[in-house]
Amino acid sequence: MRIVICGAGEVGSHAAEVLVRSGHSVTVIDRDADRLRRLGDTIDARTVVGNCARADILDDAGAADADMVVAATNIDEVNLLTAALGKKAGARKVVARVHDFNFADRSGHDYGEMLGIDHLICPEYSTALAIAQNLRNPAALAVEAFARGQVEMQQFQVADGCSAVGRPLSGLGLPTGARLAAIIRDGVVNVPDSSSTVDAGDLVVLVADAPIYDAARKIFREDPKSRRSVVLQGATPMAEWVCRALRGRAFSIRVFEQDRERAEQLAVDLEWVTVIASDVNDATVFAEERIQDADHFVALRSDDEDNIIAGVLAKLRGVDSVTVIVQRSTYLESVFAIGIDRAYSPRTVAAKQIEEALDESPVRTISKLADGSVSVFRVEVGPNCEIAGQRLRTIKLTPDWSIIAVQRGATTRVPHADDEVMAGDEVLVLGRTKHADRLRELFDAH
What is the pTM of this model? Predict the structure, then answer.
């Protein structure tokens, strides 16, 4: 495919590298000729020097014939304008990367619809959600987030002595909006029905609407610690999103920020969070605030090296679980070698989201479970879908398939037995990998 990337910064450069490796024809626009020269020395991509928010520059880069235009500069408004111009010029699909999630949140003003932008991505927001979900369930064997946090799916082990053991699923009292999607026993994955039971030690895949996920999970595994302590370094937007994602959960949250004005503002915005205007890297502050007793430490400043140093110091001083943010994906592997437990790179997340936007398959594999025999698929419901309009309780999908989430417009949720799927929906389906072609027929996904 022909792709025009606007902006040769961290996100744009990394996305260009990934897409070139995948065999796409890539053109990169940037004002900085030296930056483009360095990029051109490392990948086989055409470069254009100029302001991507100008229509003539986009024309020169081939936007009119592009399969996709990706606007990934460091200025949100430039990206929105560039993507809109790219669409107007004739690009088949356009993507705008934004830092301010208000631009990407389609539940309010839908900037994508208003400006004709196909995909608005906010990698920092997606990364913050992933961090929050991991903090909520650090022992999970697999964690997946769908639809910007509206629905969650986790794989974990059934605890010995929990109330679910030996009882049919129909009698567990799972809250509305929750579903047990799979049971993995002795390495074999099964798609359960209402009569299925779980045993202690089974791995299960639980999917639920985010607000009720914790309540559903307790049926299979009680959290041994009722309240956990989280320390965040840096009052960045990502830190704010992590705090909001953890609100109402069993967490005690402290945010350390050196800039007093920013700390005071965050304390006003997040009244349930303790915000401290201090440097957690200071050994005296660390000891006085007893950071070593925290269950989790997360470094969220904008400087990679600062985050890595903070993470190493926290680990050396006794914090059990340490997570850091790094923009450079080249740091991701090295941080594990120095003892840090988890690392996330928003630019890697951005590249993945751009690749996903390129994928126009009506049936897409989202993830695989266990030995790969069962997968989660995202499927588009076609106009002639044979099960559209039928209540799910009347459709026999198990033991091969289970509809675990339905996306309709801006809303995604776990369906209940009396729900229906409709033409135009996107559904998440868990089922046998080798029978994926049957999904095309079942949902008229062409």
Answer: 0.83
